[in-house]
Amino acid sequence: MAQIDAINRVINLVSLVVLLFAIVKVYRQVRSLNLLDYLIMYLKYRQTIYEEMQKNPQIRQKQLLSIGITMLIATFWVISSLQHLMADWNFSNLLNVITTFGLLFLFLFQTWQTKHLNEDNRYLTFAYNYQRRHFDDVLQIFEKKLAEWTPQDDADQREWDRFHQLLERVKTEAEHNRRAAMFSDDLYALFDDKLLLHEGSEPLTFHEKGILSYYVGYWDAGPYNDYTLGMLEDMDDRERKVVTRVFNVTMGLMAAGLVWVAVRQVVG
């Protein structure tokens, strides 16, 4: 058992060194650029960047190596935290187990989500939590847009009738199978500029744009991407400084938290 503990401690020490090296490397890269400008560029050319990276074998190998090393580190942290808990059952060790399991799960989910987003251009929240919470809000927005739209001629009336029938079918389906209605083709068809941006209706509010953009990410990440990009590009200098400071502080806290978890596995 002593040999296993010694090996585990060496592995965790190596993990700590690797983590510190990675943090320093990221810091040196981030320090030389404006985070907001980088994020805007990424949002504009995300899929193009991903496609070009996949064509380069060396970059793909580095990606796989990075994922593999991160997986090993997170796995060893989980094993170490479980050993500490079995040796001494207390709240601190229990919290350590929850933290390491949470980091491993978060990494796996984020890796899958990023791959899915880049390959299929679909943005999915975990277990469709966002869609479940905002389904009723989305229906209310569609109802509001139909109420604001006064048809001007026969063609306009036919379009209004079409959207009204789609909405009624979604609401009827929701009474029998809410999940099916949440992701039905009829609901997706309502995400149409003819309805949402009709010249006879009030412009969408900032809040409404956010709900619709995130919700439609189940089918297409484009509106979500454009919504986020629009927010960043519309910021003035004061807002950019505030957001950049928040990004920097958040990244610093995340780095400090990871270092604390790594040290916790070493010292026990």
UniProtKB/TrEMBL annotation:
<protein>
    <submittedName>
        <fullName>Uncharacterized protein</fullName>
    </submittedName>
</protein>
<feature type="transmembrane region" description="Helical">
    <location>
        <begin position="64"/>
        <end position="82"/>
    </location>
</feature>
<keyword id="KW-1133">Transmembrane helix</keyword>
<keyword id="KW-0472">Membrane</keyword>
<feature type="transmembrane region" description="Helical">
    <location>
        <begin position="242"/>
        <end position="263"/>
    </location>
</feature>
<feature type="transmembrane region" description="Helical">
    <location>
        <begin position="94"/>
        <end position="112"/>
    </location>
</feature>
<keyword id="KW-0812">Transmembrane</keyword>
<feature type="transmembrane region" description="Helical">
    <location>
        <begin position="6"/>
        <end position="27"/>
    </location>
</feature>
